[in-house]
Amino acid sequence: xxxxxxxxxxxxxxxxxxxxxxxxxxxxxxxxxxxxxxxxxxxxxxxxxxxxxxxxxxxxxxxxxxxxxxxxxxxxxxxxxxxxxxxxxxxxxxxxxxxxxxxxxxxxxxxxxxxxxxxxxxxxxxxxxxxxxxxxxxxxxxxxxxxxxxxxxxxxxxxxxxxxxxxxxxxxxxxxxxxxxxxxxxxxxxxxxxxxxxxxxxxxxxxxxxxxxxxxxxxxxxxxxxxxxxxxxxxxxxxxxxxxxxxxxxxxxxxxxxxxxxxxxxxxxxxxxxxxxxxxxxxxxxxxxxxxxxxxxxxxxxxxxxxxxxxxxxxxxxxxxxxxxxxxxxxxxxxxxxxxxxx
Length: 343
What we know:
Elements: H1 7-45, H2 50-126, H3 131-144, H4 150-181, E1 189-193, H5 194-204, H6 206-211, E2 215-218, E3 225-229, H7 230-246, E4 253-261, E5 264-271, H8 278-282, H9 304-315, E6 320-325, E7 329-337
Parallel strand pairs: 2-4
Antiparallel strand pairs: 1-3, 4-5, 5-7, 6-7
Helix pairs in contact: 1-2, 3-4, 4-9, 5-7, 7-9
């Protein structure tokens, strides 16, 4: 929406200066005229009788009174004009604030509309598609389980487990994203050791990593304390580690590391996976742009996890940064200030 400047606002200052000059000019002219008439009257009165002198005195008095009245009228008009200017300026300011609020509301509605489209896309495709392999594997196990070898049953069970975990992660992300967008995400920071929480996230994803023979290394210092919302940080760690597993080839490695300096804690998750191009990186945080690609073992994703991570880190007053090179791997880092910004 284009915002147009009010023409009244542009000329009010000029009108005010002009009115002030007119008032000063009127006062000066009245003073000069009165002084001139008074001087002439004095000269005339010196050559006349006392009666004429009395009449001239009355004329001077009338002139003085008239001058005062004229000046008072002009002053009143000037005050009224100042009041009018003040009122117009106030209305113009309120109009500008309403326009800004209206524009802000339009932007919020556009953002909500993009979120709605994203939700529909995820529900229609990413949330629905995992159920087909679940049903297929369930039918095989239900109908031909006696004919299956133990290793085949184990393989099918592993696939079911992976699909179920992916669906659970997606549902958790959808719920958290909805809470963030509706302002219902409770922000409850507390101090904790980063290494042990990273270890919990790694252990939680160990089965998925083992299935791809991906090694996860916790290289965090044992003395790194942060002050943050634990549930949010665990959600960020799980999403970032899941992405790394997804895009790391079998036999690859993922490392969690961190450092503290300058009042900031930096936590990094790096891998030696497939990496990304610059064009792919530019679309990662754009709502409505499907930047998700299949993993090295065909894993599916919605692209919502990274958007959620970015929002959760922003709530801490931190930033999320991605460094990646195609074919060489990806490093995702997020910062947590030692002193959280006031919410």
